[in-house]
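Hi U.,

Before I forget, here's the chain from the pilot set. I'm dumping it here mostly so it's searchable later in email.
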Amino acid sequence: MKKNGTKEMKYFSSNIKFLRKRRGRTQDDVAFALGMKRPTLSGYENGIAEPGMDALVAFSGYYRIAIDTLIRVDISALSESQLSQLERGADVYIKGSKLRVLATTVNPENEENIELVSEKAKAGYRTGYADPEFISHLPAFQLPFLSPDRKYRTFQIKGDSMLPIPDGSWVTGEFLQDWNTLVNGQAYVIFTLDDGIVFKIVENLMKKHGVLRLYSLNPVYEPYDVPVQDIREIWKFVHYISAEIPEPAIPENHLLSMVARLKKDVDRLNREVHHS
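Structure:
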């Protein structure tokens, strides 16, 4: 059998070796735990033997990682925050969806950076969001009060759709690996190739209609739907930074329509929550 096996098994050997060393285990330790001989395990790790389904199930159970991830994803290429999510059980292959591997950067201490996507950089982000070289040229910084096990990125918002959050504010979001954890009524940064980067309140309609419904805080803007297949990244709102003090700059002639619309939306969401 050729080294590295079939295309479908492309990363299996390197992944099980990487995971074993990451956890400080010897080949004897893992072989004993899986009930196999050490030379057999060595053959799997060196890519000179290909495991059967029983062995794949055993490795998946031992490392608590989906078989699809073990054989199709280069786990060693994931960032520390992604590895941490994987080890905490956020393996989206188990949920039947595609693993979202994020291009990211780290500082000299191997800590995740928070990359800054300015208004000028947004156009390049549409084509370079998955390119490590493009991401590496973005300005980066650290915020010590944020979790080192999560991945964050900061985006500059444009326009008045999210007033009273001012135009030009910097919104920091936490990368959302599992989109099933979206919470209705919370704010997210949504990135699509067509619309680029938008900051909105989200209603999760993926299971019912395969879309996210996006709302603006400014009632002048009507909600609209975005098909899930068009979305490339979702970032959960953490905080924003602005040089301006927010003001409720809402035109008076829209106040009544705003109250009526928000009440209608809240009532509908409450009914759906109670009946779900």
